[in-house]
Amino acid sequence: MLTSPTAITSVDASGLSTQNYDDYYFPVNLPFPIQIYGVNQTTVQMSVNGYLVGPQGTTAYRNTQLPASALRAWSFIGYWTDLYIYQGTPQGLYYQVSGTAPTRTIIFEWYTSHISNNTAYYHFTMEFDETAPGVVTYTYYNLDDAVARGTVGLQFLSVPQGNSTNSTQVMYSQYSYRGSPSVSTGQRLTYDPTMNLFVSS
After folding, report:
1. Residue 193, preceding bond cis, omega within 30 degrees?
2. What does the CA dihedral 125, 27, 170, 162 come to, rounded to 10 degrees?
3. Is residue 138 part of a domain?
4. Does 1 reside within a domain?
5. Considering 22, 51, 190, 191, which has the largest number of Cβ atoms within 10 A of its Cβ?
6. What is the pLDDT of residues 154-198, one digit of tens each?
């Protein structure tokens, strides 16, 4: 639903995907820092599978409950499941920056299908506002929850230096896992960092 989007995945002159995308992720440099649990981030990796992570990307496609070590150090999880972009369709990953500093917004858009069903559609956005650090809003325009039931939330895993992979700090907020509670077309979820929970509208 972006008015002047920038395509992250490749599209032709008609706006159709030029190839299939399965488990891809793409770096995006942010126009302003976004915040998660008080920590600012300036670059994200946008995954076809419905999430933003950083600083490194991941191909994780099989969703689990949070916290999920497969999603690296931190992640914003709009709808994590095995999503897919089919060549020759108007599907793709996009983003848009609006406004001027210090009141800019950046919106990331997923328009995808599912690897097991090319007629199941998943269209949602993730919005960050420069004036509201730590707040993120997920808006769902189309979710085929009968085909796949994803994970929705966010998390921050602090990992110590060296060879250890054990997290020393685990913070997360899970709104939904495998349809409990359900997430539906037309729903809007806003994360409130002061309460560490998502508010539905």
Report:
1. no
2. 180
3. yes
4. no
5. 51
6. 999 876 545 555 557 899 999 999 989 999 999 999 999 999 999
